[in-house]
Design brief:
By secondary structure, the protein is α+β, with helices and mostly antiparallel strands. It has eleven helices and nine strands. The protein has two domains: about 90 residues; about 240 residues, Bira Bifunctional Protein, Domain 2 (BirA Bifunctional Protein, domain 2, 2-Layer Sandwich), CATH 3.30.930. Helix 1 runs antiparallel to helix 2, helix 2 runs antiparallel to helix 4 and helix 5 packs across helix 10. About 30% of the residues are buried. It binds 3,4-dihydroxyphenylalanine. The site of 3,4-dihydroxyphenylalanine (DAH) has 14 residues, from strand 7, strand 8 and strand 9.
C-alpha cells in the first residue's frame, strides 16, 4: 500500500497558482491551464495515484485533491476574467485612436464655417463698452420716412443742412418721401416717441446700424456704412456729461493713450454741437497723411438735444434735457486696426478677412 504524497500536492498546487498568476496574456494563461490541469499535469498524475491507496485513505486524499483542484480552477477563472477585461480595454483604446484619426481627417476636409466680419465684431465691442457704462442697445428701421430722417430732427424740407446728407430715395408714396436712412439719428426719434407713449423716460440708449449715402466710396467713405447713435434724455443733463461719456468711451475702446477732443460744429438737431475727434491711431498724434498732419481724426458728431427736437416728440424741454452723439463703426474699425483703405471692409478678400477671425 502506498501513501498519498500530501507534501507533493501542496508543492504542485503552489506551483500551479504561481504559474497562473504569472500569465500576463490570455494565450499564456491557456498554456498555464494545460500545464497545471491538463492530462499530463502533476495534479492529474496525483489523481491517478489515488487508485493505489487503501480505501480508507483514498476518501480523505481525494477530498484534499479536489480541494486543491478547485483552488487552482478558481485562480485560473479569476485570472481569465482579469486578462479578458484588460484585453477589451486595450481594444477600446485602439478604437479610440482610430476614431481620433478619422476626426482629424474630417477637420482637414470639411469647409471652414467662417466668422463674423470685422464690422460685426466692432459693433459688438462698441455695444459692450456702452452697455458697461449703463446704456441699453436699441434697433431702428433702415428705411425711413422723410419725417424721421430729417424733419423731426429739425431739418425741414429745403433746409440747406440737407446738403450734409446725399440721400437715396425709395420709390414709395409721394416722390422723395421715403429714404434709406442717411444716419442712425432717426432711431432717436423712434426711441423718444416710444418712451413718451409708454411713460418710460428717461432714456439712455445706443443704436447701432447700417446707413446709406449717395457717396462714391473712397479710402474713408462707403456708400453703405455703419453708425452707432447715442441718446440720453434725463433731468439736469449738462455738456460735461456728454464730454465725460465721449472721453470714457474713447479710452475704453481705443486704449488709455488715445484722447478725445470736441470742436465746435453745426448739426440741426443739437445745440450746441461739436465734432468729436480722437488722437490719430496711425501716427499716435505725431501727424501723418491719414490725419492730414493734424494728429487728430474725426470720429463723429454730438451735442445737447435741440429743444425743437424734444418738442417734435412732445417732451417738455423745460423738464427734460439730454445729449446725443453719432459716429462711424467702420471708421472705428479702420482706426483701431489701422486699415489704410476702408474699401477693404467690403472687398470680400479672404486674405484680409481672415486676419480678423
Ligand atoms: N447724424 C450725424 C451724421 O451722421 C452725426 C451726429 C451728430 C449724430 C450730432 C448726433 C449728433 O446724434 O448729436 O452726420
Amino acid at each position: 500500500m502506498t501513501t498519498f504524497p500530501l507534501a507533493n500536492l501542496a508543492e504542485e498546487t503552489a506551483a500551479a497558482l504561481t504559474r497562473i498568476g504569472a500569465a500576463n496574456e490570455l494565450a499564456d494563461l491557456l498554456e498555464a491551464h494545460a500545464h497545471v490541469l491538463g492530462r499530463r499535469s502533476a495534479l492529474v498524475a496525483l489523481q491517478k495515484s489515488l487508485g493505489a491507496l487503501a480505501p480508507q485513505e483514498r476518501a480523505g486524499a481525494g477530498a484534499t485533491l479536489q480541494d486543491a483542484r478547485r483552488r487552482v480552477e478558481e485562480a485560473y477563472e479569476a485570472r481569465r476574467v482579469e486578462l479578458e477585461a484588460r484585453e477589451r480595454q486595450r481594444a477600446l483604446e485602439l478604437d479610440r485612436l482610430d476614431l481620433g484619426d478619422v476626426v482629424v481627417e474630417r477637420v482637414t476636409w470639411s469647409p471652414s464655417v467662417g466668422h463674423p466680419s470685422l464690422v460685426a465684431t466692432t459693433q459688438r465691442e462698441l455695444e459692450d463698452v456702452f452697455v458697461a457704462m449703463g446704456f441699453r442697445v436699441a434697433d431702428g428701421p433702415e428705411v425711413e420716412s422723410d419725417w424721421y430722417n430729417f424733419e423731426a430732427l429739425n431739418i425741414p424740407p429745403a433746409h440747406p443742412a440737407r446738403g450734409m446728407w446725399d440721400t437715396f430715395y425709395v420709390e414709395l408714396g409721394d416722390p422723395e418721401t421715403v429714404v434709406l436712412r442717411t444716419h442712425t439719428s432717426p432711431t432717436q426719434i423712434h426711441l423718444m416717441e416710444h418712451a413718451v407713449a409708454t411713460n418710460t423716460l428717461p432714456v439712455h440708449s445706443v443704436m447701432p446700424g447700417r446707413c446709406y449715402r449717395r457717396d462714391t466710396p473712397d479710402a474713408r467713405h462707403l456708400a453703405a456704412f455703419h453708425q452707432v447713435e447715442g441718446l440720453v434724455v434725463d433731468r439736469g443733463i449738462s455738456f460735461a456729461d456728454l464730454a465725460g461719456v465721449i472721453e470714457t468711451f474713447t479710452r475704453a475702446y481705443f486704449g488709455p493713450d488715445i484722447e478725445s477732443r470736441l470742436r465746435p460744429a453745426y448739426f440741426p438737431f443739437t445745440e450746441p454741437s461739436a465734432e468729436f475727434e480722437i488722437t490719430c491711431t496711425i501716427c499716435r498724434g505725431e501727424g501723418c497723411r491719414t490725419c492730414s498732419h493734424t494728429g487728430w481724426i474725426e470720429l463723429g458728431g454730438c451735442g445737447m438735444l435741440d429743444p425743437a427736437v424734444l418738442e417734435a416728440v412732445h417732451i417738455d424741454p423745460d423738464e427734460w434735457s439730454g445729449f446725443a452723439f453719432g459716429f462711424g463703426i467702420d471708421r472705428c474699425a479702420q482706426m483701431r486696426h489701422q486699415i489704410a483703405d476702408m474699401r477693404a471692409l467690403i472687398d470680400n478678400d479672404v486674405r484680409f478677412m481672415e486676419q480678423f477671425s
